[in-house]
């Protein structure tokens, strides 16, 4: 497996400073600082329940931070109006852990839904070709008339990514893209994430606890420990340590 | 390690869980905010006309068979049960007007709404609850679509529009049931039956019935949507949302019926 190299520092597309988030008495994020650079794949690692998904949900405005500064494409997510937030969301794609496909719609309708709502000037022909192009990009054009319930877990993930990509976002947020998939499908998803980065020039945050995925897709890795990013850098930088909170993570994924 | 535990304790002390009374007020505030958002977003463009038509069709079509059967049987049974009391005073000729007034003023709106609360309310609660649990509502949010407008306003409007139509349909089917009973027992003609029953129905009866049905329809849609849209995570939450939509919906319909009877009674005296 070829490891990806970090990109030289460029324009920041996401900048998070001193982010705090709690749910009742459970303090999930405790002073998170993070940057995502243009055309970079940043992998966020961490144990379950450490707030990885909460972090990207704050980035896209699904959750509001208790304290801290979150800037996405130079806009403060928690300070803009709902209309501005909707406009910003057009530039930020979110791929859900369980795909979140609309189960009452076919694959075609799932892709058409965000398109016709946000690009009202498109003709029927343009919509059809956009849908077919995107399904072709994820290798699932033949499923166009199927219902989500007829698809496998890996296919659902791919369709979820295609539905997100159809709006041509600048930033992609992947929530556990390989969770619950077999190793072969995991490799296919990893390749797809890299293809998306190259073909659509996206900057991405990939949430995972799969180190194979992290190594394959990440230009940079950040590890969430006790509510903050204590280790950031290349894969080696993060795991070349005797920190007892980090070592078991590596051992489980590679020694087991 | 001790230091870490200590800092956790300090953090825990900062947030206090609200008490039962506070939670009730928080829920009430949420409900009013939800209703307020409906009025704010329901009448502002862009309009979801296609989805509204689909929901109107779904709500009407889903309840039609059950409403037809219930309305027809109610008409027959009500007529049959009322006859002996009227016969004691030699007033069986009043049956058509009695049935007409009873159906239009109370039976049709109440029956239709209770059936719709069971069928439509639970269906809306379960559908939106399931969409919430499987993150489909979040998926709409992040794809720059306003899910409240697409899912909630369309369903509430559809139920507010459809329930009054279904109410008059129930009244009509109920009258047919009553006609069948009256024709078989007294040999009254359809023309005489409808003439007698329609003569006793006033403009106030029609207006009151329409207003009541609109309020009931709004309640059914709003309760179903609120329970589904705010359902907690997990499959248990979906069941709970569907169940609460029916129970709370029916409870509110009865309260609204009592209040509206008192209110419209003021105009009849």
TrEMBL record, chain B:
**Presence of the UniProt keyword Transmembrane in the record:** yes
- Tell me the domain of life: Bacteria
Q: Does the keyword Disulfide bond apply?
A: no
Q: Which InterPro entries match?
A: Permease_MalE
* Residue spans crossing the bilayer: 59-79, 86-104, 156-182, 203-229, 241-267
List the keywords (alphabetical): Membrane, Transmembrane, Transmembrane helix
Entry protein name: ABC transporter permease
Q: Which organism is it from?
A: Pedobacter panaciterrae
List the taxonomic lineage. Answer: Bacteria, Pseudomonadati, Bacteroidota, Sphingobacteriia, Sphingobacteriales
């Amino acid at each position: 497996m070829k490891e990806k190299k970090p990109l030289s520092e460029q324009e920041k597309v996401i900048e998070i400073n001193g982010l705090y988030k709690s749910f009742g008495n459970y303090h999930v994020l405790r002073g998170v600082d993070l940057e995502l650079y243009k055309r970079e794949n940043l992998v966020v690692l961490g144990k379950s329940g450490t707030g990885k998904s909460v972090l990207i949900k704050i980035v896209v405005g699904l959750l509001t931070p208790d304290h801290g500064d979150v800037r996405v494409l130079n806009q403060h997510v928690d300070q803009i109006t709902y209309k501005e937030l909707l406009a910003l969301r057009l530039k930020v794609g979110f791929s859900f852990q369980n795909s979140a496909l609309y189960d009452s719609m076919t694959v075609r309708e799932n892709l058409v839904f965000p398109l016709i709502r946000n690009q009202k000037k498109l003709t029927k022909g343009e919509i059809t070709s956009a849908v077919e192009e995107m399904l072709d990009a994820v290798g699932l054009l033949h499923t166009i008339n199927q219902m989500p319930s007829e698809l496998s877990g890996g296919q659902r993930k791919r369709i979820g990514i295609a539905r997100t990509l159809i709006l041509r976002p600048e930033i992609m947020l992947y929530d556990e893209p390989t969770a619950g998939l077999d190793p072969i499908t995991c490799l296919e998803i990893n390749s797809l994430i890299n293809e998306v980065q190259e073909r659509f020039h996206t900057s991405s945050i990939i949430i995972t606890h799969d180190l194979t995925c992290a190594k394959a897709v990440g230009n940079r890795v950040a590890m969430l420990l006790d509510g903050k990013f204590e280790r950031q850098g290349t894969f080696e930088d993060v795991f070349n340590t005797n920190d007892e909170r980090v070592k078991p993570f590596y051992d489980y994924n590679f020694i087991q | 390690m001790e230091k870490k535990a200590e800092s956790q304790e300090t953090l825990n002390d900062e947030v206090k869980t609200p008490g039962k009374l506070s939670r009730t007020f928080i829920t009430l505030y949420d409900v009013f905010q939800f209703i307020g958002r409906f009025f704010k977003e329901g009448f502002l463009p862009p309009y979801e006309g296609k989805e509204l038509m689909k929901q109107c069709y779904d709500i009407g079509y889903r309840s039609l068979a059950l409403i037809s059967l219930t309305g027809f049987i109610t008409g027959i049974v009500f007529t049959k049960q009322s006859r002996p009391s009227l016969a004691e005073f030699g007033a069986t000729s009043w049956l058509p007007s009695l049935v007409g007034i009873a159906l239009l003023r109370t039976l049709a709106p109440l029956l239709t709404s209770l059936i719709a609360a069971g069928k439509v309310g639970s269906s809306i609660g379960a559908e939106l609850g399931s969409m919430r649990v499987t993150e489909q509502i979040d998926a709409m949010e992040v794809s720059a679509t306003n899910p409240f407008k697409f899912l909630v306003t369309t369903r509430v409007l559809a139920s507010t529009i459809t329930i009054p139509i279904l109410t008059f349909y129930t009244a009509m089917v109920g009258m047919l049931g009553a006609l069948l009973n009256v024709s078989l027992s007294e040999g009254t003609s359809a023309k005489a039956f409808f003439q007698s029953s329609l003569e006793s129905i006033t403009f106030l009866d029609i207006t009151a019935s329409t207003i009541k049905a609109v309020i009931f329809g709004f309640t059914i849609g709003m309760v179903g949507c609120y329970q589904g849209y705010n359902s907690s995570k997990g499959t248990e939450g979906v069941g709970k949302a569907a169940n609460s939509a029916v129970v709370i919906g029916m409870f509110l319909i009865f309260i609204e019926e009592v209040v509206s009877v008192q209110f419209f009674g003021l105009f009849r005296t």
